[in-house]
């Protein structure tokens, strides 16, 4: 007799590749060891930003008896964020457009429950962050995956249009994109908006867009960023501070509604946010993180150092024979092994205590992802191993031929 619900069983199956990697793999055996080169997840490998520590330390001290009382989306912080988002995205946000959440995952979960009924469909492009599918399944929704296009991993608008059915309710866009680092241009987003308008008219119901933007402020070479919320009114934005602060364990984020959304639709969503966050298990940030938010808003991972890491690893990996897609944003490198079996390469790197995110967990087994949050000494230790593995496997292949 089945004990666990069908929705959770489906989510468990979808999560299995990343669960196995984190808990039951060779990486799991060595995770946390001080001498490994760990480029798997976007975790910090150096001490945190001083401003982050100072803000949390200051705000953990209670100022009154209600300091640690229940906190929903506090109005003064909604006002603060509306002003900052208006400046950053050049859109006229109002306080009621913003729901504070305990990270972007909570914001995404809230968006799914706000918009999707049982059996309705959500489209997203792959390779993708490995949590969209299980989170949709846990919400009793149906994931519809389409591939990104070409060597640059552009949005495949034709594939998205073909995937839209009468059950489609949501399209998910991740920009800057994990794992490729692509930032989608205004022209691409306008074309997507036109497509969604036509499709909504065709199926007789509005298709919403979720713009997942946790890496929005991590951009290289002065690259511009345009939020889909600026070109498609029926857009919701999920955002996390865990990336720009490099502190994913301190959960702080928000779900924002595009201020361009028609007022009737926006008011319906606004009036449902609090109940949805409560029903999902109190998806609000804890009190201390809310108090600290204004102090954290201006902090950032060191982009100069991150850019130097990107350049160093890209050059060395390309010289060794790997294909590297130079990211426009995020703190990842998306790489292709120089021919052969991806698992063979991954194991050979693991033999040398170098661990990367295997592409199989993102449905691209001939690729891997490197998190540039690894320390500089870690990077320098790893580069000879990358070169040695590429040379050894290619030599072995040539001998076999």
Automatic annotation (TrEMBL):
<dbReference type="InterPro" id="IPR015424">
    <property type="entry name" value="PyrdxlP-dep_Trfase"/>
</dbReference>
<comment type="similarity">
    <text>Belongs to the class-I pyridoxal-phosphate-dependent aminotransferase family.</text>
</comment>
<feature type="domain" description="Aminotransferase class I/classII large">
    <location>
        <begin position="37"/>
        <end position="382"/>
    </location>
</feature>
<dbReference type="InterPro" id="IPR015421">
    <property type="entry name" value="PyrdxlP-dep_Trfase_major"/>
</dbReference>
<dbReference type="GO" id="GO:0030170">
    <property type="term" value="F:pyridoxal phosphate binding"/>
</dbReference>
<protein>
    <recommendedName>
        <fullName>Aminotransferase</fullName>
        <ecNumber>2.6.1.-</ecNumber>
    </recommendedName>
</protein>
<dbReference type="Pfam" id="PF00155">
    <property type="entry name" value="Aminotran_1_2"/>
</dbReference>
<keyword id="KW-0808">Transferase</keyword>
<dbReference type="GO" id="GO:0008483">
    <property type="term" value="F:transaminase activity"/>
</dbReference>
<dbReference type="InterPro" id="IPR004838">
    <property type="entry name" value="NHTrfase_class1_PyrdxlP-BS"/>
</dbReference>
<keyword id="KW-0032">Aminotransferase</keyword>
<dbReference type="InterPro" id="IPR004839">
    <property type="entry name" value="Aminotransferase_I/II_large"/>
</dbReference>
